[in-house]
């Protein structure tokens, strides 16, 4: 269900005006509220970073927009079929995955997007945390309800990964690589992470939440000194900032396109696209599975998204969880 | 965390008394409440079906207990390690699985039990409903947090099934059989159903809810006329009622024992016990997988709980979802 907030309506009026100005009377009529209430909405937009001039007898004029992930900004010009009809923007939240899961439990439709400016408890894989400062990055979750078996749902992690890679290239021209199971790298350094969560019965998926965190405009100084892996952001690699709104719109469009293909053609096109983004395919790797190390050639993904490793004896090992690294020179 | 309600404390005082009587003054002191508040608690116990006499100058005497699934009744004499330290009894709820999932989302510890006298939206497999009238049956959910991979979690459906079978035999002497994936039958008619639900990441289980519905004292007249399968209850098969509290205590004890074994020894003992309860093992079956029919010999369960069917060509088919029926004479 499409929600249209007063803020969204005002921004829409600014977009539609031909004179540049929208009068307070007009806004008051369209919203059906008092002039005082209009003034309060203008103030709240200014607090979000919108530069709005008030010119006596002509009205309000929008002279500058911030890069804020408001639903109304993301949706403006967003051309998708399933993803993002309903977008919830939160200035601050514990974790967009937690919020999206709660909304899905309450019956939210497929395609719901939750996006936050800042997370206080951003989640990474296996209970790790995800550094989530305000105003610089993207923290986003999407609710899907695919008619697949629970064992097939991990395929969707690779769908998220390919969507993030394509959005990065579209917005920045950079060429990211992927690392099994859920990392996206630029020049070998972690730029985005994925955390898909699922609610399921034994033979039915209730819903999947695609959780996506992308370091967009974070500076080197904003990273904690102790990280498990070297990390970077699009801005660090590019030497300039990127538009968060533009990136988000691109990402949602990519997810929409890939998900449509996934539903029509099954997982193979998505898995093949992921394998193309993986620079270790065909290379010697070591997989650390906690209880044991597996060495071999990375052969790609099986249909459920498990990692296939060809061992020296010629057999294939199917890996469901673990950390992958290339075999270093001399190992 | 153990919760002790005023009701539970009063029932405990009745159990501990040697004279048969507990004075209002004593209850008032132990609970730290007024005599009026004590009287209200006694009234609430009477409304639940407890027969309590009040004898002037001697106090209260418990002369009869109802078969109500109060946490305090179930816990009395319950000797478990993990399951049932925290039991929540609800007179009526939508679905114990929904309530248990919500509590697990909020951080409930492993072993939490939610039990209801009646469900308004009892859930069966694949979105089917589970008939859940008041006062006669058992509707119960258990929260587990096993350190297994999501693909392994379906094993726990078979753990529930074996626990229900053992509790039925312990309480009634009847010998139930199981039907893949989640039914328990008496004389070929459905007596209990299981609906396990899971919250997971790609390579980690957040929690599993074991959902268990058992027809205990339901009469033939209480079944809807249109059911997918012929159904029965313990009382119909036995010709007498069974104690719901006793059955529940037995079930929780069986789950506790099996889960402990599962964590120590892996799934094989549980899967083998299930195969022993399955009267179709080694027989000719047809599996209706919606898109196709598979015919062959039921060979048992693979380690993840999938059904293994040996086809006429000698190969094994692994079935993740479907409905099983025996091949009838002459097919």
Give the structural class of chain A.
alpha+beta
Largest interface (CB within 8 Å) is between: A-B, 27 and 27 residues
Strand content of chain A: 25-35%
Helical proportion of chain A?
Answer: 25-40%
**What overall geometry of chain A do the principal axes of the alpha carbons give?**
elongated
Comma- or semicolon-separated keywords:
homodimer; 331 residues; alpha+beta; Arc Repressor Mutant, subunit A; BirA Bifunctional Protein, domain 2; SH3 type barrels; eight-stranded mixed sheet; five-stranded antiparallel sheet; 9 helices; 31% helix
What does the model show?
The structure is a homodimer of 331-residue chains. Chain A has 331 residues and is α+β, with helices and mostly antiparallel strands. The first copy, chain A, folds into three domains: 6-64, Arc Repressor Mutant, subunit A, CATH 1.10.10.10; 71-277, 2-Layer Sandwich (BirA Bifunctional Protein, domain 2); 284-326, SH3 type barrels, CATH 2.30.30.100. In chain A, 31% of the residues lie in helices and 27% in strands. Chain A contains nine helices and 16 strands. In chain A, the strands form three sheets. In chain A, strands 4, 5, 6, 7, 8, 9, 10 and 11 form an eight-stranded mixed β-sheet that branches. Chain A has a five-stranded antiparallel β-sheet with strand order 15-14-13-12-16. In chain A, β8 (183-186) and β9 (189-194) form a beta hairpin. The longest helix of chain A has 22 residues, at 244-265. The radius of gyration of chain A is 22 Å and the shape is elongated. Chain A starts with 5 loop residues before the first helix and ends in a 5-residue tail after the last strand. In chain A, 39% of the residues are buried. The mean pLDDT of chain A is 91. β10 (197-201) of chain A pairs antiparallel with β10 (197-201) of chain B.
């Amino acid at each position: 269900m499409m929600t249209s907030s007063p803020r969204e309506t005002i921004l829409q009026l600014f977009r539609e005006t031909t004179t540049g100005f929208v009068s307070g009377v007009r806004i008051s009529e369209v919203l059906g509220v008092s002039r005082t209430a209009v003034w309060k909405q203008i103030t709240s937009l200014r607090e979000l970073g919108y530069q709005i001039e008030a010119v006596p007898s002509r009205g309000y004029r929008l002279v500058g927009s911030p890069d804020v992930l408001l639903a109304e900004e993301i949706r403006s010009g967003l051309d998708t079929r399933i993803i993002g009809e309903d977008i919830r923007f939160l200035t601050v939240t514990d974790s967009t995955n937690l919020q999206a899961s709660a909304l899905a439990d309450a019956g939210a439709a497929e395609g719901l997007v939750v996006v936050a400016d800042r997370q206080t408890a951003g989640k990474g894989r296996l209970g790790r945390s995800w550094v989530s400062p305000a105003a610089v990055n993207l923290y986003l979750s999407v609710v899907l309800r695919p008619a697949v078996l629970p064992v097939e749902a991990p395929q969707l992690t690779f769908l998220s990964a390919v969507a993030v890679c394509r959005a990065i290239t579209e917005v920045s021209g950079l060429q990211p690589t992927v690392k099994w199971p859920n990392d996206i790298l630029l020049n070998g350094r972690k730029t985005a992470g994925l955390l898909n969560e699922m609610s399921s019965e034994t033979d039915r998926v209730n819903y999947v939440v695609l959780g996506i965190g992308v370091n967009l405009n974070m500076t080197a100084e904003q990273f904690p000194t102790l990280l498990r892996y070297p990390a970077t952001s699009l801005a660090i690699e590019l030497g300039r900032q990127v538009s968060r709104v533009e990136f988000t719109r691109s990402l949602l469009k990519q997810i929409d396109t890939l998900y449509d293909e996934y539903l029509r053609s099954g997982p193979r096109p998505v898995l093949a696209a992921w394998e193309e983004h993986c620079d270790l395919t065909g290379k010697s790797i070591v997989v650390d599975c906690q209880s044991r190390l597996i060495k071999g050639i990375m052969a790609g993904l099986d249909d459920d998204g498990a990692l296939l490793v060809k061992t020296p004896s010629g057999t294939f090992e199917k890996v469901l969880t673990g950390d992958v690294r290339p075999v270093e020179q001399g190992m």
